[in-house]
Amino acid sequence: MTDELALAPKNFQELSEMSKTLSVSWLLPAALKQSPQNLMLVMMTGRELGMGPMLSVRSIHIIEGKPTLSADGIAALCLRNREVCE
After folding, report:
1. Which positions ≥6 away from 11 have C-beta within 8 Å?
2. Residue 22 C-alpha from the chain's centroid
3. Residue 42 burial (CB count, 10 A)
4. Most buried pick, 20, 32, 36, 54, via CB within 10 A?
């Protein structure tokens, strides 16, 4: 996928609006449904790891209040950054 196809917020306001809009989706994991704040935290965590919003939602889970990267998320990051994960 190319960057121009990625739908990613450019600033905090856009992230806030995206989180509010997506938080009502029934496709979200339970910890993110009806919680724009949790959704925002997951997308911000993913962004720090170089992930887009949707990969972040699919790959970062909230476990005991902490954003935790799934095995699939770790694999995706290793495939993208082969120089780090040999």
Report:
1. none
2. 12
3. 26
4. 32
